[in-house]
Design a protein that fits this description.
Layout lengths: L19 H7 L1 H6 L3 H4 L6 E6 L14 H4 L3 H11 L2 E6 L27 H18 L3 E10 L6 E11 L2
Antiparallel strand pairs: 1-2, 3-4
Length: 169
């Protein structure tokens, strides 16, 4: 139909990715003075590259000598190069930590039990218990009770102390 208006769609704007290296160079002084610069900068010792020689496990090659020159297809040429070239391997320093959290390496020394903390208050209570058990071992009678000490002018007691009385027969 000739009377139907044609809609012209505008092309979306092309968004260029950020040039990370360029931004690092431009804001070098700000990054150097930043307390969290380790989060921005790429660690240089994070990975290592190595070249492993291709080991062939056969007496004669399975690829003809001039196969790469005679190949017409780019795909075939690249397949041949992949098959006969050495391996370039990237080893990451923290690769052990990149998997599932349940399979993290246990490299740190783990303590089997938490260290026991002894406080002065605990030692005093232990001394009182030792004294009570000592009195019962000698055949004496141990009586324990509460002693309330308070201000004489107030009806509310301020402090509370434990009183242990040993009665020997």
């Amino acid at each position: 139909d000739m009377n139907t208006p044609v809609q012209v769609l505008a092309k979306p704007k092309v968004i260029e990715p950020i040039d990370y290296e360029n931004i690092i160079v431009q804001k070098k002084t700000q990054i150097i003075n930043d307390g969290l610069r380790e989060l921005l900068l790429f660690p240089y010792d994070d990975f290592q590259t190595a070249v492993l020689k291709r080991q062939h496990q056969y007496v004669c090659s399975t690829i003809p000598e001039n196969a790469e020159k005679e190949a017409y297809s780019l795909f075939v040429t690249e397949c041949i190069k992949t098959y006969i070239s050495d391996w370039h391997v990237v080893n990451f320093k923290h690769e052990d930590y990149s998997g599932d959290f349940r399979q993290l390496p246990n490299k740190g020394n783990r303590l089997e039990k938490l260290p026991v903390h002894v406080f002065e208050v605990d030692e005093e209570a232990d001394k009182d218990e030792d004294a009570a058990s000592l009195g019962s071992q000698k055949g004496g009678l141990t009586k324990q009770g509460w002693l309330y000490k308070g201000n004489m002018n107030s009806a509310i007691s301020v402090t509370m102390r434990v009183c242990i009385i040993f009665v020997y027969s």
